[in-house]
Structure formats: C-alpha cells, structure tokens
Amino acid sequence: MILQRLHVHFAIWISLLVIGVAGVLTLLLVLGARVGLDEVHQASVSHLHDAMDESARNSLVSLTETLSDNLVNPLYDRDMLQMRQLLGTTLQLANISATHVFEPNGEIINDGIKSLPSYGQPVADDVLAAFNSSAGGVILLERDDELVAVRAVRIGDELLGGVEVCYDLSTVARNTRAMTGRLENVALQNLDRNQTTAIITTGLMLLIVLPVTILMALRLSRPIRTVAKQVNEVRQGRYNVELASTNISEIYQLTTSVKQMTETIATTTVSRNYLTRVIDSMHEGLTVVDDKFRIEIANRTIEGLYRCDAGELHGQLLLDLIEPAENERIRLWLDRVADTRMSSSIETAMLTRRGEVIPMTLTAAPLRDDDAQSSLVCVFQDISRRRKQEERIRYLAHYDSLTGLPNRDLFFDRLQHAMKLTGREDHLLALLYIDIDFFKKINDSMGHAAGDLLLRQVADRLRKCVRNSDTVARMGGDEFTIILEPLQCTDDAIHVAEKLLDSVSQRFEVDRQQIFINLSIGIVFYPMSDLSAADLVQQADLAMYQAKEHGRGRYSLYESRRNGCARDRLAFENELRLALKRGQFGLRYQPQIDIRTGRCVGFEALLSWQHPDQGEIAPREFVQLLEDLGLIDDVGDWVLRQVCVQLAEWNRTRSTRVAINLSARQLRNETLSERIAACLHEYDVDPACLELEITEGSLIADIGQTEATLKELATLGVSIAIDDFGTGYSSLSYLHSLPITALKVDRSFIIGLPQDNAAEAITRTIIAMARSLNLRVVAEGVETEAQFALLREMDVHEVQGWFSGRPLLAAEAGSRLEKKGVTPPPLPGGNDAASSQSPLNTES
Amino acid sequence: MFATTSIRRRLLLTLLSLIAIQANASVDLPDTLVIGKISHNPKKHYPYLKPMAQYAAAQLQDLGIRNVKVRMARSKQQMTQWLRDGYVDWVTETPFATAIFMRDAGAVPLAKKWKKGVATYRSLIFTRKQGDVQKIADLQGKVIAFEDDASTSAFYLPALMLRNAGLDLTRLDSLRSTPPATSVGFVFAKEEITISTMVHKGLAAAGSINNHDWQKDDHMPRVARGELQVIAESDELMRAVETVRPSLPRALRERLRTVLLNAGDDPAAQSALRAYQNTARFEGLSRAELDQLTLLQSLASDLENHLYP
Hints:
The complex is a heterodimer. By secondary structure, chain A is of the alpha+beta class.
C-alpha cells in the first residue's frame, strides 16, 4: 500500500480542483473560438466563390467579344491559318478548355488545333440555339463544370459564323477549394494561437495557484504531522517524549489519546529495539521463518556466519543457507517440525556466501503465535570447533601421531575390509610385516628423538613405495605393516618388497649423522586359506622373523608348513621332535677352497631334514623351531658326533677341517666345551680339524658367558670363525679380545661383486682388517667366476659357494678331498641359497 | 615579224592570265553565310533554316565563315532581287521558284533536297465529290484556290495543267469576286488548309495541293478529304532545290555543295536536317534535272506571259 503524506494529499486535491476549473474555462473559451471561426470561414468561402464566379464570367465575356471581333477578317477571307492562330492563342489562356469557329449552320470550321480534329463537326445544340437567338452580344451558357460563351461573327449585316469559348469551371472550383483551404489554415492557426494562449494562461495560473495550494496544505496538516512525529518517537521507544499542545479540538483529543497510549506502552511493552539487541547479542545465529521458510527475522550472528550484509537475508529462503547436498533432508525435517509443532535439532552444514561449508547444529521450534501462523524459530550453532576436535580424536584413535600412518586399530579395520573385498573379487591381497633391523641399537646409541626422526623418514619412504590404494600402517615400535590390495599376482608384492628394501637401504640423515639401515619383511598372501585378520598378521610376523633369521635386510614369504594353522604347527613340531629319533636328519658338506691352490681345505657341515612326506626341508624351516622346542642342544650334539665320525674317517687318509654352526643358545650352554672335548676325544679327532661358526648376534647376546665358552673351546684347540661377518653388530673390539681364528664374509657383500663398488670396498676392508689381525678370511656365497677372480685379487684366503662346490654327501666330499685343484663346476640355473646354509644357520 | 607578233601575243596572254589569277585571288570571301527563303510566316520558318545554316557554317570555317544569318523574303521578286544583289547567299525553294531565280537572278543550283523525306512530289487538283466540277474542263467560269505565286505544286503545276487543258486563267482579287465565264478564276489562299476548307465549304470550286499534303490532317481535314476528290494529277517533279547567288565565290559555293551532299551521312548534321523541313539528304542534280529546271524557266515564262501579258 502506497502511503501519501497528508499535506501532499491536501495539495493534490486542491490542485486538482484548481486544474479542473481552469480546464473547463479553457475548454469553453476554445470551443467558443472554434464556433466563431467556423462561421467566419463559411461566410468567407461563400463570398470567395461568388467573387471568383463573377470574375470568370466577366473574363469570358470580354475574351469572347475580343475573339469574335478578331475573327471577322480571317473568317471573311476563310484564312484558316489566322483563325487557327487566334483560336490557338485563346486556348493557351487559363481555364479555356475549348474554342470553336463555326458556320452559321453550326458546323465547326476551326478549333485552333493544327490537325483540326473538330473540323466539320456540329456545335452543341444549346450553343447553336444560343447562337441563333443571339442579338449580337455574348450569351453565356452554364453547364456542370464549364461556362460557355457564344457570339456571332458578323461583318456589317452579313453573318459569317459564330465562335464559342468554353471556360473550365473546375479550375475555379479548384481555386475556390485552394482558397478555402488557405482560409481554413488561417482559421486553424488562429484557433491554435487561441488555444495556446488559453493553455499558457491556465499554466501560469497553476504556477501561481500550486505553491499557494501547497502552503495551504502544509498549514492545514502541520498539527497532524506534529502528532505523527511524536507518535513515531514513541514507536522508537522514546516514551518520555513531550507531546505538543494545540488549540484545535480534534487534534487535542488525538494528542491526549496518544499520551495515554504511550504511558500504557511504556509500562507494559518490551521495545523491539531491546529485543533486537538481545537477539543480536546471541552467540547462535537466529532466524524466524514463515510457513514457506522465508526468513522474516535474522540476527547479526547468522548474517556474520553467512557472510552477508545486514538485512540481506530478509525474504530469502532458509534452505538457501544450507549446503545444497543437505537441502532436501533439511526441507523434510523443517516440514516435520512445522507439522508436529515440536522443536527439534539436526546437524547439517551451511554454505556461506563465500562458498565456505560450516557444520552447524540447526534447532527449529514453532513460534507460539496467537493467529496460529506456522512460523518457526531456527537457531544455527556453529559446531566447526567441535567437529575439528572430534576429527582430531578420531584421527588420534586411528593414526600414529609420530608418522601420521594408520595405527594398529585402523590397520586392522582396513585389513578386514580389504579381506572382505578380496573374498568377493578375483584378486589377491598381500600383507607385508616390516621391522627395522637393529633399530633398538640406534635408539640406544642416538637417543629416542633421533629414533623418532628415523621412524618418520622410514614411514615416508614406505609410503612413497606403494600406491595410494595401499595401506601403510605403524604397528608400534619399529614395526610397520603394508596392505597391498588388489594384486594380480604374488610377484607384484615381491616387487614392492624389493622396492622397499632398496629404498630404505639408501642413506638416512638424522641429526646430521648418516645412518644406514635394513628392513626385514615378511609377506603373506590372502586368500590362500580361511584366516582371520589376526592370523594373517601373525603369519606375516612369522615370515618377517624368518627373514631376520635368514640374515636380515631381506624379505621372506610365509610358508604354511612352518606356520600354518595351529593344528598343522603342532603336527610339525611333533614330527620335528621325532626326526632325530627316526634318523631323518642328515648332513651335507660344502667345500671350502684355498683360493691360491684351488684345493679343498675344509667343509661346512649343513644340516637337513628328510621329511617322510615333504621331502628334504632346509634348516631355516626348522632351526628356530628346534630352539623354541629346546631341541637345539640334542640336535647340535648329533651334528657334532656325526662330524667327528666323518673327520675320524677322513683323517685316516687325509687331514681336513669341518665347520659346524653354533646357535646362541648352544653358546650359552655351560657344558658346551666339555661335550665338544668329550666327543673329540671319543672319536680321536684332532681339535684343529673342527671349526665352530658363530654369528655376531650370538656373540653379543651374552658376551660374558660367550667369551668364557669361546676361550675354553680355544684352549681345546678348535678354531672359531665369525659367521656372516659384516651384517651384525659393528663393534669390532671382540675381534681383538676373543680367540677368533677366522672371519666369514657375509654372502650379501659377495653377491654384489664385482659391480657393487660399496660391497667391494666393504669386502676389501674386511679382508684387510682380518689379515692385519692374522685372521683367516673365508668368502661365502661365491657363485661366479668373476667373483672368484676378484676375491683372489683381494687376497681372500678361502672361498665357499656354488662356484667352488655345492653341498655334497659325505662320500662325495671324501672324493673331493682327493682332488688336487678346483675345477669350478658350471653354475646352476638358479641360486639355491638354502643349500649353502650352515646346519644351524637360519639365515638364507 | 610573225615571230615578234607571236611573242607579243604570248606575252599578252601571259599577262592577262596573271591579271586574271590576281583578280581571282583578290576576291574577298565573306565571313557570314546568309540563308534565305520566301515565307509568309517567318516565325514558322526561321527555326527551320537557322540550324542548317549553322551546321554548314561550321564546315566552312576554314574558308572564313564565322557567322550565319537568316533572311526571308515576302515574294519571289524580292528574293530574286536579294540574290542578284548578293543579299542572300543560299536559298532553298521548290523547283519553279528555283527556275525563276536561275532565270532572273542567275542563281546557281547546288543540290536536290529530299524535303520532308521525299525526293519528288506531284500536284493534285481536287473538287467536291458532290460538286458540279468533275473534270478540269468543268472549271471554266469557276474559282480555283492556289497557295501563292511562288508555289510549284499549288500554283505553277496546276496552272500549267489548266493551261494545257486549254483553259484561260484569271486572277481574282478576292474569293468573293466572280470569275469570267470564259476562264478559270484563281485566288491565293496562302495555306494548304485554307485551300482545303475553301473547296470543302464550297467557297472555291477546286483547289490544288501536293500529293503528300493531301494525306495530312493539318492540311486536309479528314472530314474534308472524305468529301473531296482528285480530278487531275501532274507528273513527278523534284521536291526542292538548293541554289546560291551567282556572285558567291566559287570556292565557297563548291565547298557548300560538298557539305550538303555529305550531310546525309554525317551524324552531326542529322539534327539540323530534321529541323530543315525534315530533310532526308541532298543529292546532286543530274543533267536531266538541270534540263528540267531550264524547261521550268520556260514554262514559268509562258505562264507569266499568259497571266500578266
């Protein structure tokens, strides 16, 4: 509704009144002038027509008289040329449409036209009649559109003929019309001038009258405006306004009523401003929406949340504030709140004007209204902080805070999920269990902070080696797991493992120190059997230990016969317990060759288990289990005895040396030296022919006990060799303090020769160090001629491996001893690493 | 002696020839070419002559012609005098008038003119079909209307035809005069249309116009033609002839003749030719036609002797 101000109202009506009166007066003046001008115009036209008609008649009579006089001689002489010239001249006069000279009988002689088209034709009857009745003057005949003058041509009394001249009245009529038109134009112009004058006069009147009208209107409306202004003050909450007094009765009554009303409001009403301040002070965003969910009221908080200007939300749909994906859900929820008239809360998200998505708790409650309108009060509460905290809690619950990798819980979730997927789809899953070799020593020597830094870097490298779809998790300490899924074949997992080994073997830098580490990785595949996630992890863990046993810095695939299901494992243990009694263990002898002479100077005895069902089982499969079962000492004694028996046999013909491996558990046995001494004595074997191989790890496990045992053994005269030298603990002090006679360079260095410069450097260093300590150096795992040649150039003492000789049965070994030099056998198609293992060595 | 006389004679002849050449060389060529015609209506004929004279003058510029002038005589006597006096250089007229200029002024004919697009024409004598003159002989005691005394087809030829028919001719002062019963009275009506209407209205018993005018409504109204008849026709005669004064320098005269003879094929001349009474071309006069002109002189003299003894 468009409101008009009172004085405007007054001004309009008074002005309309004045304009109406002025307009009517102007109309009357104009109409009067028009009627007067019409009358003058009619009179002028009539007079003009008469005047022109009279003029035409006079002209025609005069012309005809002159023409007839001039025609006397030509007609008398019958001079056609002159007649034609006279008539032709006449025809050229204005309004003359035709002229003829005719015989007394009315036959036309000449018409003034060169070709004489009317020659010989009779004149009109009325012309002939007029001619015959003519007494000598001009006779005028009136026709519809022409005036015809007829006169006889005489010479003396002789009638020569007649002449007629036709005057075209249409021209007169045309001229009359033209003149009439001009008169009308003049009249209309006069009328226009009169109208313009009247309008200007009216306009001037209005210009004068309108301001006066407005002044009158203002004066009339001033008291009411004053009251209205005071009421407006009250509306704005200023109840103490002083109402103006007036002497106008009606206005006085109005002022009194307003005053009373103001007092009532002041005592009974909370002002809207107050409410607005309250609403705006709320921490939550508040809106009131109508039944169409259009916003009627919005406080400043909601405007701030929505990032819009004040008042901008008014009229906007509440749903426009909601993130579009949530829109339909919230609309249904609002409908439900409106229908049930029950307040409710819901978590949703607001999409701000700037495109930010803010999580919100939206609470809607019906507004209690007397007129039963279904307005809703909607309150938005920003729950961003709470959400972030929740997310942080969730994150901490599922992720490792140090590396940012999924933790054990999340790992198991993902593993179970991946196993389900794998069960449904036709692909494989691989689980890699990873442990950092000798991490504890790094922690101990460099401190936990450095260890943490190293763990982070390792985690980064692991992450970079796998796909985004794969999961790398930290299980705790220095243990990690990786779920590779999906996989098309097992080789894929092996490639990943190799990639991980390669990546982590690269240098790390922690606290400005360079660190080289290796990983031991156990790999298990699913679905290979019906396992739980925990079983799968356990298998991977076992495989990882297997890798460690095989020398660390490598991966190992889980094999079910070793760590199958509990039932299988129990059966396997029982079979292992009985193997010794059943005589299923056997020994193979791998030659050790003097690199200078090529002669076989000794053997390393390698244990094997001839399983009745599974065939020959490599020692890495069961040595750890022998230790776990406490059988290692019995089996160790059996090996010792077997070697001593064989040495006694060989020594009868030729002296040689046989090395056996001792585990850490055996070393810790205080009776070890006594048992060895007894056995040597029993079979009358020279102690110098027996060599005991121990690993670096075994040495440091209990260095005190080990040192004592080794010294006792040295006293017996047996040789002591450090097996897998270079891969274990790098403290070399024991080389000096312990009665060690030989070092066996680990195969991991030999494999890289001759291409791997680092391996070559390490090998050279070990050889040089050993020589400086007067220790014999044996290179393990020699498999190629190039390795053999390089090691000879490095001046190693002895070599052992497939190149110089594969593990042999006792009889074969005896035959080998008879040979004077080495004839390296051809390399086999693959590297059966297991076959080169010591009987008690779990490393591959 | 003989030899001396012979030598003197030769010397004399040589001197005379030189004088003659000198005299010839001293003739002044005019710078204005004056064309003329006998006319009762100078206003009508002036526009006919001026463009033709201008065209010819343009071709004669190398001979000193710079201006043109048109002069129209009221009668053949006046024109004869002008030719004789050198007041006009070049006249276009019908054959009998030309013959009279040759006879009385020594005018020289240059070319035959295809006036109004025709080379020849004939003279007709006509009467009313319902009248009492059905043959030439019936004209005795009657009035015949001619054009004027210089007209070939509307005076000389029909008058000679009447004379050849054995009729005498008497000129009447006016149409209303009564002719002698023994001869044919004649009046000059000046215009063909007047001749036609005089006969048609019975004011004259006969009239004479040429065969081309007979077909034109402005000379013979259609109504009148239907009520009139031709009772005699002359032989074909050349339509018109261009003549020059006898004193016109030969070089100028011959160049003018060449210009006229070539005008029919000159695109630049076409506009002037159309104005010049719609002339199609000019042709050279044959020996026979020159002889004919000589004959016409004789016939004209005979007629004049009859009329003005």
